[in-house]
Design a protein that fits this description.
Keywords: Calcium, Disulfide bond, Glycoprotein, Hydrolase, Membrane, Metal-binding, Signal. GO terms for molecular function: acyl-L-homoserine-lactone lactonohydrolase activity; arylesterase activity; metal ion binding. By secondary structure, the protein is mainly beta. The chain contains three helices and 25 strands. The strands form six sheets. The chain has a five-stranded mixed beta sheet with strand order 6-10-9-8-7, with no helix packed on it. It has a four-stranded antiparallel beta sheet with strand order 1-25-24-23, with no helix packed on it.
């Protein structure tokens, strides 16, 4: 009898593991392929060879690039080189990406930037918020952009127990922001287990110097986060659920879900066109290729444009798609005055004129 019970439990466990494995393949879209959608006026950006995971553009056309992101188990084309912040002036005729100097005292050797966001104060001071993973830790760094010196002055390092696995950030004040945790756990093994079992424990946290709180939860992998031009809504990309969540922002900074847009791809970072409110999304048509790198079968890239997301029937357009022959693992797309910048998790970056 005891052996029969043991065999029954073993069979149930194996069946559950098998079901979770098949479900994970579906969430990763492990069989996903992409049909090429080309843009005519594009070229690779010199100086970006090992990823530009996120991009933020100021109203004056200055674009910040988060480069050199590294993560355990994820491919890197420059594993021994620290990350950095690059800048490009999109108003210049001859475009070039230059690395910004960071003030003394900041640990550059362990700089591992991830998601970024900007905030312009009433006195026109520009703040740059950077998710950082020094030695696999989780912090948000706040910098002040010094335009005359073309450098970043480090203001503050934000650490908190509610930031176990920070992915992206959207600034809403000079020291205030929302941040996504793509996992509930910080331990790498527990992260894999959390993903495998699809626990949906990822969340969004609001931070201010006076208050830190979870304001939204129940995500599979909370990834990119952004804010509508009127600042009434927060948008969150749930990567493995293939969804974009629209959350209404309240005066107490709490969030309530307004709607969910379901897509057929893994969604990464979100960028907003300030003039139209359109959402530009860096996507991964096949997540397995992204996480299990094969140079002979590289991850593809896909950029979506979402118009009128608050309506009953938003318009979703594939603006760019490539099988990895040009661009591998697109993670972000940002627009400025008819100019499109596309970044990747660990590959090159693309500039296109629309």
């Amino acid at each position: 009898m005891g052996r029969l019970v043991a065999l029954s439990l073993l069979g149930i466990s194996l069946a559950l593991l098998g079901e979770r494995f098949l479900a994970l393949r579906n969430r990763l879209k492990a069989s996903g392929e992409v049909e090429s959608v080309d843009l005519p006026n594009c070229h690779l950006i010199k100086g970006i060879e090992a990823g530009s995971e996120d991009i933020a553009i100021l109203p004056n056309g200055l674009a910040f690039f988060s480069v050199g992101r590294k993560h355990p188990g994820l491919h890197s084309f420059a594993p021994d080189k620290p990350g950095g912040i690059l800048m490009m002036d999109l108003k210049e005729k001859k475009l070039r990406a230059l690395e910004l100097r960071i003030s003394r005292g900041f640990n550059l050797a362990s700089f591992n930037p991830h998601g970024i966001s900007t905030f312009i104060d009433d006195d026109d001071t520009v703040y740059l918020f950077v998710v950082n993973h020094p030695e696999s830790k989780n912090t948000v760094e706040i910098f002040k952009y010094e335009e005359e010196e073309n450098s970043l002055l480090h203001i503050k390092t934000v650490k908190h127990e509610l930031f176990p696995s920070v992915n992206d950030v959207v600034a809403v004040g000079p020291a205030h922001f929302y941040a996504t945790n793509d996992h509930y756990f910080s331990d790498i093994f527990l992260k894999y287990l959390e993903t495998y079992l699809n626990l949906r424990w990822a969340n969004v946290v609001y931070y201010s110097p006076n208050e830190v709180k979870v304001v939204a939860e129940g995500f599979d992998v909370a990834n990119g986060i952004s804010i509508s031009p009127d600042e009434k809504y927060i948008y969150v990309a749930d990567m493995l659920a293939h969804e974009i969540h629209v959350l209404e922002k309240h005066t107490n900074m709490n969030l309530t879900q307004s709607k969910v847009l379901k897509l057929d791809t893994l969604v990464d970072n979100l960028s907003i066109d300030p003039s139209s409110g359109d959402i530009w999304v860096g996507c991964h048509p096949n997540g397995q290729k992204l996480f299990v790198y094969d140079p002979n079968n590289p991850p593809s890239s896909e950029i979506l444009r979402i118009q009128n997301i608050l309506t009953e029937k938003p318009t979703v357009t594939t603006v760019y798609a490539n099988n990895g022959s040009v661009l591998q693992g697109s993670s972000v797309a940002s627009i400025y005055d008819g100019k499109l910048l596309i970044g990747t998790l660990y590959h090159r970056a693309l500039y296109c004129e629309l």
